[in-house]
Amino acid sequence: MGESFIQLKNLKTYFHTEEGTVPAVDDVSLSIKKGETLAIVGESGSGKSVTSLSLMRLIEPPGRIESGEILFEGHNLVDYSKKKMRAVRGNKIAMIFQEPLTSLNPVFTVGNQISESIIEHQNKSKKEAKQLVIEMLTKVGIPRPEKVFHSYPHALSGGMRQRVMIAMALSCNPELLIADEPTTALDVTIQAQILTLMKELIREFETSILLITHDLGVVAEMADRVIVMYGGQIVEETDVYTLFKHPKHPYTKGLLASTPKVHELKEELISISGTVPNPLDYPIGCRFADRCESVMETCRTVHPELKEIKPGHTVRCWLHE
Amino acid sequence: MNYIVRRMLQIIPVLLIISFIVFTLVFIAGDPVALMLPDDATLEEIEQLRESIGLNEPFYVQYGSYVFRVVQGDFGESFRYGQDALSVVWERLPATFELAIAAIIIAIMVAIPFGIWSATKQNSSIDLIATGAAVVGKAMPNFWLGIMLILFFSVTLGVLPVSGRGSFAHLILPAITLGTGIAAEMTRLIRSSMLEILNQDYIRTAKSKGIKSVQVIYKHAFRNALIPFVTITALQTSTLIGGALITETVFAWPGIGQLLIQAVNTRDMAIVQACVMIIAAIVILMNLLADIIYRILDPRIKLD
Ligand SMILES: Nc1ncnc2c1ncn2[C@@H]1O[C@H](COP(=O)(O)OP(=O)(O)O)[C@@H](O)[C@H]1O
Ligand SMILES: [Mg+2]
């Protein structure tokens, strides 16, 4: 694993709603190296999806990237025109989503939908694209790809649909694949199949992955490095081994403690007492203070910074000053 | 196919019920004999006529023979036209179709761009203007709009004919009159379904593929918006015919609407009944068509 080829620097994405400003992504910096799988974990609402959508510049009003940089192959994507950005999306950075049913357009065939990005980015005719699509469908393990090419999404099972999404995302051989909870909506056995498939394909395509999940089982299986997010911020970042063996942030520890041993995958796994603070009104101190078992006086009054406690291991916590 | 046949068969009882209602109303409305004979007819002559056309039979016998005749396309003879009622109605249908189709074309040409525009630029000034215009267009009564158009284009400017049918110029004002309300309704419908669809996950997927936004809007979103649009539009045939009734009267447009209003005024019951049955049949067929189109446009539903 070499150079980091994509980097977020102090990214802030806020939603300006009628109730107030939601700092959904609040000063997030991260980098992904070639061939690496970086996982982002955290409870629902911690800003994982908004981080990934910001990276694709797919934030819609009332949301906005307030500041920060998205460095990709030496360029800042934040400054890209719409047209230049389109050439990146689906081509160099592709994305798969949580709900494979709602994420596919119900009125177009699978073949039609996968062909689109190939036609758009690779200057191929419909016929050439079809060949490539069939090839991709075969690669993602879809039986009778010719038939599936002409099928509508509703005619396929959840697992098949997610395979279609993966085929679509990988069809232009992207440098980075963003997978936002790719297995959350699937049955346990299908989840395992999809994860295995993704691992095989990453190796074959040499794609880097930004894997978003709230499932630490998936993290253990897939990730090289892990970022833990809470309240729109990174609270801990380390390699996957250290995360499970020597977690530092009380929130990370809480996450690990509440992970069921046999994955009960459908459920939100978190059972740390208390609730996520209201993003419209974050406390001035540590955002986790109210739920933290080791909370101190400082935690409530001063916001902790992200500190590197060991090479490659950073924590945002007053316990680790 | 089975499904369509089944739906076609369901039309029969509906038409029977309508025929019953129409017949009952006419039955209650009273005796047509007085209108059929000259003013100086004797009581004896009246009684004779009543007997000969079966008006002295009990209600159910009269209804039975009525249905029997109607099934054969015989709605009786129009007093006013001295002709078989159905063929009178039949002759008027093309004019109404012409007007309706012109109105729908105008409405579609206005509603699709404005509906999509205002949905994609929600709360922009275009959106506000389009939405406001739709409210006004919907609220404007057909007869009032028709008269205003006549006053302006025919009387003041003198560029378009006041009434009647014939040249293309004759069609313009009635089509605009009838089309305005439909355009307003369509714009509102397209806007709201586009707004909903643009928030769907598959739109985000389409954008994440890097395809052009034209393609995202017109292919991915609009193709989905077509499903409720076409369906609801077809289901609004009755509103369209209601509008045609008034528009045709204002512009002396010789269609089935004008015919019906005149027939009601002159108590030409054969025509009234034929008109109502034909209109009912058209509405029912359009509902069936809406159902079929819906199934064709939405691959999630099978025609079985
Ligand atoms: N379109 C939006 N409008 C307003 N707030 C939003 C919007 N999308 C996301 N948010 C807010 O941003 C925060 C982070 O959301 P998200 O990134 O989806 O969380 P998750 O970690 O579950 O993926 C949440 O507080 C959410 O309410
Ligand atoms: Mg999410």
From TrEMBL, chain A:
Residues 6-256 form the ABC transporter domain. One of its GO terms (biological process) is peptide transport. The keyword Nucleotide-binding applies. One of its GO terms (cellular component) is plasma membrane. SUPFAM superfamilies: P-loop containing nucleoside triphosphate hydrolases. It is a peripheral membrane protein. This is Oligopeptide/dipeptide ABC transporter ATP-binding protein. Keywords: ATP-binding, Cell membrane, Membrane, Nucleotide-binding, Transport.
Automatic annotation (TrEMBL), chain B:
It is a multi-pass membrane protein. InterPro entries: BPD_transp_1_N, MetI-like, MetI-like_sf. The keyword Transport applies. It is found in: Cell membrane. CDD domains: TM_PBP2. Residues 93-290 form the ABC transmembrane type-1 domain. The keyword Transport applies. The chain crosses the membrane at residues 12-30, 99-120, 141-162, 168-184, 225-251, 271-294. Keywords: Cell membrane, Membrane, Transmembrane, Transmembrane helix, Transport. Belongs to the binding-protein-dependent transport system permease family. This is Peptide/nickel transport system permease protein. It comes from Oceanobacillus polygoni.
